[in-house]
UniProtKB/TrEMBL annotation:
Highest rank taxon of the organism: Eukaryota
Annotated Pfam families: Folate_rec
Domain called Folate receptor-like: residue spans: 54-179
Keyword Transmembrane: yes
Residues spanning the signal sequence: 1-24
Keywords, comma-separated and alphabetical: Disulfide bond, Membrane, Receptor, Signal, Transmembrane, Transmembrane helix
Full protein name: Folate receptor-like
Length: 275
């Protein structure tokens, strides 16, 4: 009985934590700021000038950048080149699972809601570039003949030289620049935070890459984030009622059992007395 109560208290506490953390998130990002398209390797946002929104079905179908499906400036078209690059990396790049995960997070930078509403350019943290480079140093890339950008080796580029990332570049910063990104080093004194900083992305990176068992937690968190406050409250109340019912039923069963035992003992006592 005590254990059930502990479980219930934990569940309610956990849900409250979940809700307050998801509310805190939307509180942090300024609701009035709109998506600002980034130039360079990225196509303009279809939602340029609008606030970040939950991703479209078409975007969800791409099965990319899941961590940002809740709220983003991206649509499927924004990710066309990223999707192709990741497909090539997975098919021809001999990339490890870590490399694919990190590379996807890098390509998805454009879809992070905070990045979406930032002024240009899209800045990737040097420390994050180092992690991507570390994970992908043995994966195969080639240079785009027309703009010299680094791209994962693809089927159509059979005649172009393919080489490991570590053969093309010597560090993460150079790697990110070669991929067409702008890099922000720790020394830069910009007010806007960069993408992939410890505080902004580490929790996401850790949950996505290190502990996939937490996928359910993310789904749950996303679900809660997409609910309205009324829905969230009614959910907690429902769970609380279910918990209370289970708890009461247990107590009821235990009371019945105690009653039966008491009666049995009395009966035994009577029988002994009568004998
Ligand atoms: C190579 O660069 C050109 C010009 O920027 C671009 O149109 C093309 O899509 C790039 N190719 C690949 C495979 O990324
Ligand atoms: C990274 O590599 C580039 C090109 O090889 C070099 O110019 C730069 O100094 C290096 N940066 C660091 C932090 O090592």
């Amino acid at each position: 009985m005590g254990r059930n109560l502990t479980k219930l208290v934990f569940l309610v506490f956990f849900l409250r934590l979940l809700i307050s953390s998801s509310c805190g998130e939307s509180f942090n990002s300024d609701e009035t700021r709109v998506c600002i398209s980034k130039r360079g390797r990225f196509l303009p946002y279809e939602s340029d000038g609008e606030t970040p929104m939950p991703s479209s079905l078409e975007f969800k179908d791409l099965n990319l950048c899941k961590v940002f499906h809740g709220k983003t400036c991206c649509s499927a078209s924004t990710l066309h080149s990223a999707s192709l690059a990741l497909e090539n990396l997975a098919t021809y790049g001999e990339a490890t699972k870590d490399c694919l995960d990190f590379f996807e997070l890098l390509e998805c930078s454009i879809c992070q809601p905070d990045v979406g509403i930032q002024s240009e350019p899209l800045r990737i943290c040097a420390s994050f570039c180092d992690r991507v480079f570390e994970a992908c140093s043995d994966a195969y890339f080639s240079r785009n003949a027309s703009n010299q950008d680094l791209v994962p080796c693809g089927a159509s580029e059979g005649t172009i030289i393919c080489g490991k990332a570590s053969k093309w570049e010597s560090n993460g910063t150079a790697f990110c620049y070669a991929l067409g990104f702008t890099v922000q080093t720790a020394g830069d004194l910009t007010e806007e935070p960069c993408y992939g900083s410890k505080s902004s992305l580490e929790p996401v990176v850790e949950t996505v890459i290190k502990t996939e068992t937490f996928a359910w937690f993310q789904d749950l968190q996303k679900l809660v984030r997409e609910m309205t406050l009324v829905q969230q409250i009614s959910w907690v109340v429902t769970l609380f009622l279910i918990g209370t019912t289970v708890f009461n039923r247990r107590r009821y069963q235990q009371q019945i059992q105690a009653m039966i035992e008491r009666d049995a003992r009395r009966l035994m006592g009577n029988m002994n007395g009568n004998a």
